[in-house]
Amino acid sequence: MEGLLNSEEFCCSICLDLLKDPVAIPCGHSYCMECINDYWKKNDHLGVFSCPQCGQTFSPRPVLNRNTILADMVDKLKKLELLGNSHIYDNCMPGDMTCDFCTSIKQKAVKSCLVCLASYCQNHLQAHYKSPALKKHKLIEASVNLQEKICPHHDKYLEMYCRTDQQCICLLCVMDDHKGHDTEPAAVESTKKQKELGMTRQKYKLKIHAKEKDLLELKQAVDALKSSAQTAMENGEQIFTELMQSIERRRCKFRDLIRDQERAAESMLQTLEQEITELKQRDHELEMLLKSEDHVHVLQVSLILVLTVKNIAQKMLRMYFGKVNDAVSALKKRLEDVFKGEWLRIYQADSCPLQLNPLTAHKDLSLSKGNREVAVRSRVQSCPDHPERFDYWCQVLGTEGLTGCSYWEVEWSGMGVNIAVAYKNIARKGESSEAHFGHNDKSWSLFCCRKGYAFWHNGIVSKISEPGSSKIGIYLDHRAGTLAFYSIDDSMTLLHTVHTTFTQPLYPGFEFSCYDASIKLCQVE
User: Residue 108: what pLDDT?
Assistant: First the structure.
């Protein structure tokens, strides 16, 4: 049956896959129900429908019905293909070596023969156990690349090992190309290697155990950090919410005050307009009285007008809100100063005492004050060479590699300096960029001068338009991958922030480009 069916004959010419819900159109060609419907939808506006294969047209659109006979044949074809694919390797798992002598159903190979250069399942292997001639053949665990275990020069099994040339050889090689070499059976050398590998594995196990212990401790620390961070975040959110609510209440009161002043001004305006209207009425009555010839009426009415006319004093309204705006601006500045001060105190909580490593200092640098100050020497002095010492760039590194959260401050003087952090494996010798702070992927550097700043990493510079300051704060959150530089004067100004992934501990470092410069590690209060 399988030989009579050709899968290509049951493929849809539109999707090129086996027919799904097959239908036959009037010309006799068959398609998937969905494919031909989608194809004909494009011609709905024309009212003429064609066969994608032969081009025959139909009008109106033919009614399509599922061809059950064709559908059954396609289902049988699918089952035959699945059965054929799975039956061949019925007893094998993916990646298993198969028997070279199984024909219909491939069985898993259990042994390979180095003489026959073939692999056998349990059934086909019996001949090697029963036949006297085959019993002499060398059997090994089932292996894929049998040819690699045969000597290419003598077609013999590689059962010896040459320690001199460190390669597997056959017995004939021992008496030929490797004569006089230090040789021994491959099994003996393999046993030695396995012992060495066992010791190496034991070291790996110890390292894994130590790393797993570190991982457990780190997870516990992270969990504790997350818990405390969540609490701090919730408390901070509550404080900021209350602060914002307080500010909002005062903003509403401020607006109400301004609105009250507006309403008072409008009320005074209405009062003044009403008084003007009344005065105009009295003026009109006086005008009529002046023209009257009735003396008695003049005398009677004039008495009333004199009594009712008042001397209305107009109070000039001069509202000015400049002082109010000044007061609000001053409040804003005080709040910003408070916030900056609080952020500074938050960073200072992670302050760490640092020292410089004299073994890394360039010969032109002089360390003092417990290795917390460094300056360029006024006179060149001899200095013993050391593998960690920078021999070209006038640089120095700190003694301690930093992880976690750290904050430190430095005060500098002179024409310009570089304040940096670097991995310990940064190059130390020569004038290449690999040893220069900020010019490789192992260091990050802030250049400081009186005119401003510039940040360097991997040879790329980012200019910073901020006025120069002689005091710089550095904040590092190693796990979060954050490095920030701050200018510190009366307030704390962010100069530059780095967001990356640090793969090693970071060491503080400094570089000097002129002979009048110095740097001091400050005591953070």
Answer: 86
Q: What is the pLDDT of residue 348?
A: 57
Looking at the DSSP assignment, which residues form a beta bridge with residue 18?
Answer: 11
* CA distances from residue 161 to 114, 117, 150, 168, 339 in whole angstroms, order as listed: 17, 21, 13, 4, 75
Run of H or E residues at 413: strand 405-413
Q: Kindly give the parts of the chain with pLDDT less than 50.
A: 1-4, 83-90, 307, 309-318
pLDDT computed for residue 377 by the predictor: 80
**Quick one: which of 508, 512, 510, 502 has its CA closest to 474?**
508
| Chain center to CA of 147 | 48
Where among 87, 119, 154 does a domain terminate?
87
Same domain, 301 and 375: no
Closest of 86, 90, 157 to residue 121, by C-alpha: 90
Distance in angstroms (rounded) separating the CA atoms of residues 319 and 261 = 8
Indicate whether 1 belongs to any domain: no
Question: Residue 309's pLDDT is what?
Answer: 44
Taking the CA of residue 339 as centre, how many other CA atoms within 13 Å lie in the half-sphere pointing to its CB?
Answer: 11
- Give the range of the structural domain holding residue 19, as residue numbers without chain letter: 7-87
Return d(Cα 43, Cα 65) in angstroms, integer: 20
Which pair of tokens denotes residue 302? 């004039």
Task: Give 414-467 as a 3 state SS string.
Answer: CCEEEEEEECCCCCCCCCCHHHCCCCCCCEEEEEEECCEEEEEECCEEEEECCC
pLDDT at 91: 57
Kindly state whether residues 369 and 507 are assigned to the same domain: yes
Q: pLDDT at position 250, please? A: 80
Q: Are residues 490 and 393 in the same domain?
A: yes
